[in-house]
Amino acid sequence: MKEKIIEVNNLQTSFYTHLGEVQAVRGVSFNVAKGEVLGIVGESGSGKSVTSMSIMKLVSYPGKIKSGEILFRGEDLAKKTDKEMLSVRGDKISMIFQDPMTSLNPVYTIGNQIIEAIIRHQNVGKDEAREKAIEMLKLVGIPSPEERIDNYPHEFSGGMRQRAMIAIALSCEPDLLIADEPTTALDVTIQAQIMELLKELKNKVDTSIILITHDLGVVADTCDKIIVMYGGLVMERGSAQEIFYTPKHPYTMGLMKSIPRLDAGDDGRLIPIPGTPPDLIKPPTGCPFSARCPYAMKICTQEMPGYTKFGEGNEAACWLLHKDAPEVEVDTGVVRGDVNAK
Q1: d(Cα 172, Cα 90) in Å, to the nearest integer?
Q2: Burial (CB count <10 Å: 0-12, 13-18, 19+), residue 74
Q3: How far apart are the first and last CA of the chain?
Q4: Less Cβ around it within 10 Å: N or C end of the chain?
């Protein structure tokens, strides 16, 4: 069994606004093993990015981690001070932020920004740090790295900036890399290149990755396992193959239907999920997806279901999976009820 790099247990993070407490993350749990890629997917506002920012302890005022554990190699990051986290961020855990266009400092060269990270966390001089920075730019596929290292961010294209961000994140060979929407604002061709790069780098440096995205198509060929978030909760978790080919939760099925398909034909239409995400200032008592679910029952609005397990590591929180629930045929071919439940 592989070593667990990080284990998150019952994480709860809220934002205290003048309108009330926004319960952005409401009890999220997961773990990532060494060399594993975990995808966290869901609509905007589902709590994906807040989960990642909580791991890095970058949730700023008026946000606060209310409770839960963030165990990184056995140490609870939730209990660490900001000063103690300085030795963790960028060294043991690195993060690629959402927008490559604005994440880099425009007044410093790309090289300076990589060198700063290396010098801060590794016992090396400036010349050695520069050599390593050139190696990192070469590793992420930037041509003529000896020359491009002295360029400013505005001299790089969007895809090149994202590669530079990855170079900075990997410069200290972290145990865990968090990639928050790494393909945002990039065209489709560059998206594919960035995802292929992440896969190659994972194999080269054996870094564990948490990949956060709203685009299921992005994680299909990259992740070992996936958790599906909605309304600050985990709706379903499982291997990539289980999530894509045998989804158990109606929300996951809805996300699958919204993926463009090459075999859909001229009349193939994307099927949106009707309705809007829940208000997390006053979250629903029951399942947060019940108001949008075509299979919702009365109990769905009254009580949050527990998880029903389907084999090793695959589980979903839905009342239709309960052994006493009525069997419902859905258009994915999956029958609700106690089929395969454990």
Answers
A1: 7
A2: exposed
A3: 22
A4: N
The contacts of residue 93 (CB under 8 Å, 6+ apart) are 6, 55, 56, 72, 174, 175, 176, 177, 178
How far, in Å, CA of 50 to CA of 305, rounded? 23
Chain-wide mean pLDDT for the chain? 88
C-beta separation of 10 from 69 below 8 A: yes
Tens-digit pLDDT profile for residues 49-95: 999 999 999 998 999 999 999 999 989 999 999 999 998 998 899 99
Q: Exposed (0-12), middle (13-18) or buried (19+): which is 2, by Cβ within 10 Å?
A: exposed
Please write down the long-range contacts of 283-288, taking CB distance under 8 Å and 24 or more positions apart.
283/23, 283/26, 283/231, 283/232, 284/231, 287/317, 287/318, 287/319, 288/230, 288/231, 288/232, 288/233
User: Max CA-CA distance within the chain?
Assistant: 68
Which amino acid is present at 73? R
C-alpha torsion angle, residues 104, 107, 110, 116 (rounded to 10): -90
Query: What is the Rg, in whole angstroms, of the alpha carbon atoms belonging to the chain?
Result: 21
pLDDT digits (tens, 9 = 90+) for 232-241: 999 999 999 9
Structure-block tokens of residue 192: 């594919």
Phi-psi bin for 311: left (phi > 0), alpha (psi -120 to 50), beta? left
**Can you tell me the distance from the alpha carbon of 310 to that of 295, in angstroms, rounded to the nearest whole number?**
20
Write the single-letter amino acid at 114.
I
Helical ranges in 140-187 per DSSP H: 145-148, 158-170
Closest CA to 58 of 88, 38, 30, 31: 88
Q: What is the DSSP letter of 139?
A: H
Strand arrangement of the beta sheet that strand 4-17 belongs to: 20-33, 4-17, 63-72, 75-76
CA distance 342 to 338: 8
